[in-house]
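To fix ideas, we give here one paired sequence and structure record:
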Amino acid sequence: MNWKLEEFADVLRFEQGVGENTIGGYLSIIRNLQKFLAATPISPEGIRAWFREMIAGRQVSPATMQHRRKVLRRFCGWRTLKEKDARWRASIKALEAIRPPRAQRTRKALSKEAVNRWLEKPNLGTPEGRRDRAAMELLYLGLRIGEVIKLEKKDIDLREGFVRVIGKGNKERYIAIPQHTLPILQNFLGNLSLTNGRVFGLCVQSLRRRIKQYAEKAQLEGRVPHELRHSAATHLVQHGASLPAVMQVLGHANLRTTEIYISASALMGFEAMHTCHPRSLSAPGEAAPEKTLPFPSPTSRNKLASTH
């Protein structure tokens, strides 16, 4: 790895608390630009040429272009602060002037029936099937795939009914486990000999590939694991969850801009999961009883915190 990229990665990792998967994605974007420029250094002209090719080729989505633009803006900003070179300031101005095409309407969320069809494809009679089904259920609770693979056994409290998640920027949140999801996790963890460490034992790429294979078996070709998370958000809203509650469940960073809701939404997120998530409903349109809301007790949260 280029030493400048190594240094940038360390700044993201140690000073800004960016996750490893995100860092890998950032570096990949910068390397792609360098590959496009061949031996030519990064410059405003090179950046403009790269985006012109993306726009003309129409093989890169507007959302991806916007993301690449944001990443390069961050990289050039870091180089500007470090080197005080006018070339990097000019590169930032070039990036700010680029206007990718408007994004098309995003793909609709899956129906609850399609999600159930997808979730039912793993063979629960095998260890791999139990593992994959548990992972898919967690994605459908709103976890990111990178968050799922990092889960340790101590993060999943089946007695209290919640999962402790460390999200982007090492932000901690608690996700309640709906009543129909609990037996799936019990079946998986109960047959697991592992006492500590990561419970799924897969990398992101391997788990993503396996889940996509189940999508094909469910006649949902082209669907990706992230769409389980997206569908969870949509279904929560459809069943009456408020937007702040869904933001808490998903661990979205824009809660920083709505600090007034943070303490309240931590509780709302638990209530939303148990009263609004399809996996919590006993029958169509029927919410789980109020008494089933398993908010983590102070004792269990203190016990969990002491193990980390």
